[in-house]
Design brief:
7 helices, alpha/beta, Nucleotidyltransferase, domain 5, 2 domains, 5-stranded mixed beta sheet, 209 residues
Length: 209
């Protein structure tokens, strides 16, 4: 049995999934913390009737996201790949979420909340930390067909109006199979050295540009 492992601790709680060519098992727990990662993996392996030796590729989100969540998620995945028995692939959270819209990522944007009035956005292969007005400007200027958005983006009045006026399909960032990230295995180079991206630009840096 050859398995892929997907780990996301960049958003709420812990999301983890194991997939083979014909089977898929996942665990999504918004309340979970980093200390549950080992137990969650053990449970998924048991459900698959597999062992850790069957896992050959591991994909982990690097952020943006919370400091503690990302630090534990990345460290956990580095630990289980340290033996060299499996390869570790690090992808940004926005890069991973974009896969939920399907293979045509060039026409897809990702918008998730950073903090009040600010958003993380991925568009045309670039990632941004920008204010609402800038999100509106970029979406209007681009040929966007789909937007992957979190609950905050979907509830924001300005973004709601933008998505409606632009006639884009809005895809929620949750309730999706992590296995959708699989195409990234072919575009990202494996490396045991991965760094979490949890630092937001400060207001000073933002205003000084």
């Amino acid at each position: 049995m050859i398995l892929d492992l997907y780990v996301d601790t960049s958003r709420k709680g812990v999301s983890m999934a194991i997939a083979s060519a014909d089977r898929y098992e996942e665990s999504v727990n918004p309340e979970a913390r980093g200390e549950t990662l080992g137990g969650t993996l053990d449970d998924l392996l048991k459900r698959m009737g597999a062992t850790l030796d069957d896992v050959k590729r591991v994909m982990v989100t690097l952020g943006p996201g919370s400091f503690s969540g990302l630090r534990t998620g990345v460290a956990f995945c580095q630990g289980i790949c340290f033996s060299g028995k499996r390869n570790l692939y690090g992808v940004t959270t926005l890069q991973a979420l974009q896969q939920f819209a399907g293979p045509e990522t060039a026409s897809t944007a990702v918008v998730i909340r950073a903090r009040n009035g600010y958003w993380y956005m991925r568009l045309d292969g670039k990632e941004y930390f920008i204010e609402t007005a800038e999100v509106v400007e970029k979406v209007k200027a681009a040929n966007i067909v789909k937007v992957v958005a979190d609950d905050s983006a979907m509830a924001d009045a300005a973004l709601q109006a933008l998505f409606a006026d632009s006639h884009v399909e809005v895809i929620k960032d949750t309730d999706q199979k992590l296995q959708a990230w699989a195409p990234l295995f072919d575009t990202v180079k494996p490396s045991l050295i991965q760094e979490a991206n949890y630092i937001q630009p400060s207001y000073f840096e933002k205003l000084s540009k």
